[in-house]
Amino acid sequence: MDKLADTLQRDLNKLQTNYQKSVEEALGILDTGYLRKIQANFFRCGLKCCENTSAPVDEVQRCIQRCETPLSRAHELMQSEVDMFQTRTQQCAAECANRARDKLTTDASESQMKAAQREVITCSQACVDNQLSSGLPALITRLKEQLQKLKQDEVGVVS
User: Fold this and answer.
1) Alpha-carbon separation of residue 47 from 56, 120, 124, 156 (angstroms)
2) Rg over CA atoms, the chain
3) 35, 84, 138, 145 - which has most CB atoms within 10 Å?
């Protein structure tokens, strides 16, 4: 690999690492602020189901399944929203690659190829920056609202 290719690879790795770190940090806040509380309520609720020694097995199982509903919904919600967020980032980066590819001719020189690669990295960086500066905060706000609603809905299940 030549020096430019090494630099491009390092830039790409750095871009990916920063993106993942930012997303993980934001989702970690949701985990501690919402998901763990919902999970703790699931376990408390399930414990109450199991402590009912007069209930038949099938009733205890139904009780536990009802307890699990808010947690399952929270996980599905998180997965769906994060998938959409990542898809938007990937689509933007793919569009960057397509635009750079469209500028190349079939007999493009090595310097033109490297310029196109640099353009893809620069454009992809803009995609990531945009997603992290506006898309991620919007995602977190949406998830907080929806998880808060789930926490409120589960109060009836835990009682």
Assistant:
1) 15, 53, 49, 16
2) 23
3) 35
In a domain, 34, yes or no: yes
Q: Which two tokens stand for residue 39?
A: 């999970």
Phi then psi for residue 102, to 5 deg, are -65, -25
Distance between CA atoms of residues 115 and 119, nearest Å:
6
Domain, as residue range, for 73: 22-158
Whole-model pTM: value is: 0.80
Q: Identify the CA nearest to 137 among candidates 16, 56, 22.
A: 22
Q: Which of residues 127 and 3 earns the better pLDDT score? A: 127
> Contact at 8 Å (CB) between 157 and 69?
yes
**Residues with Cβ within 8 Å of residue 38, at least 6 apart in sequence:** 70, 71, 74, 147, 150, 151, 154
